[in-house]
Amino acid sequence: MKRTRELTAAVLMPLVLSLLVWGPLWSWTLLVGLTCGAALWEFHGLVTASGWMAPRYLSFVLFAAILAGAFLGSAPLLVAAAGASLVVLPTAVLFAAPKEPVWLGSAAATSFATLYVGAGGAAIIALRGLGWETVVFLLGIVWAGDSAAYYVGSRLGKRRLAPVVSPKKSWEGFWGQVAAGAVFGAILATLLPRVPGSPAVAAGAGALLGAVMSVVAVVGDLVESTFKRSCAVKDSGGLLPGHGGLLDRLDSLLYASPVLYGILALLPELRPR
After folding, report:
1. Which residues fall within 8 angstroms of residue 168, CB to CB, at 6 or more apart?
2. pLDDT grade, residue 235 (50/70/90)?
């Protein structure tokens, strides 16, 4: 399992980074749309596994509209697509006339799934619009932190972080992830081109931002684990050998990307120049 996990990452990471750095924005948007779309499909699978119904095709239309808003930089389209998700999907559930006990669960779960995956994907696209460095920073923090949590937790983990939600996660692994996020944040902020500030200032800001993103990534991982736990499934899918489904791999990014974009929106001096 460990070797399969590492091999999958070794194959995918260079491909993703090559397209991110050298590809045009439309190609990155297409990649994000395909991967997040597969994650949304897996989320729909969790919804139906719980006995609810999911109007998948309407959900995908609204999801695509959300990503289109991010690609075009259109705030009105983003707001309209998000608002429509809260109106159209419950209405579709209503007219599908399922059994009464699943009305609320079906409407709420499908609307949330569309906004949850859509907002994360839109933020990843919007970050690329600010500069590929912001996405490399995010991916580096999440990937390094996830690896650190895995290795530190498997060797030193004793105190359970969230025993009901994710029995294998430990406080030792959590602090290992935060430490790795801070270290890699400092390194990436120093090495990446167009990062503002002197090397010392960039490293300090990168370390702080890396630590914050690592905490958010852990929360995102745990939140997705609650979804699977409530649906009594171990993995959201089996598309990635050794990693489970795409939703399992994107859970931290879907949570961390809107937070990072929000920070950069509030503090534009941190954006690449």
Report:
1. 153, 157
2. low
